[in-house]
Amino acid sequence: MGYLSPAMYLRLLVPGALPAEVERVLYLDCDTLCTNSLTPLFELDMGGAPLGAVRDPFNRRLLDMGGIPGLAQYHDLDPYALYYNSGVLLIDVARWKECEVTGKSLAYLARHAHESRYPDQDALNYATYGTWLRLPHRWNDLMAWRLEPEFGGLVTSGRR
């Protein structure tokens, strides 16, 4: 798949590379447009969750769009559980490490990356199953579905 890059996996390694005094990280995909202060998000009470994320508007549950690869073999996963988008992640670094999110994600990828549409996102949803904090959708409003797929007009300027 042309849209996949090995760089997408780097977000899985960031918390482990940080010094102990770093408590939180806010990960933003490069196509994220910030239109207001992120301070309220960064100061949010995470309640012990390793990460906060927004529910994906397209794949709303683990079973949607064919489900995350391997879903049927993981009997402890509820297929109707919410699925989040990994484009905006509020990470509690200490909890991430305690919950072994990196290790669980990498183990999942070793088994299923070849069959996944969104390998890093599926791995994170697997690794943080039942422990992630659902953020209000305002923090990751995926608006691409509202845009026209093509512009059909002709724009001219000046003399013809």
Automatic annotation (TrEMBL):
Keyword Glycosyltransferase: yes
Source species, domain of life: Bacteria
Keyword terms, alphabetized: Glycosyltransferase, Metal-binding, Transferase
Keyword match Protease: no
Single Gene Ontology MF annotation: glycosyltransferase activity
Protein name (database record): Glycosyl transferase family 8
UniProt organism field: Micromonospora olivasterospora
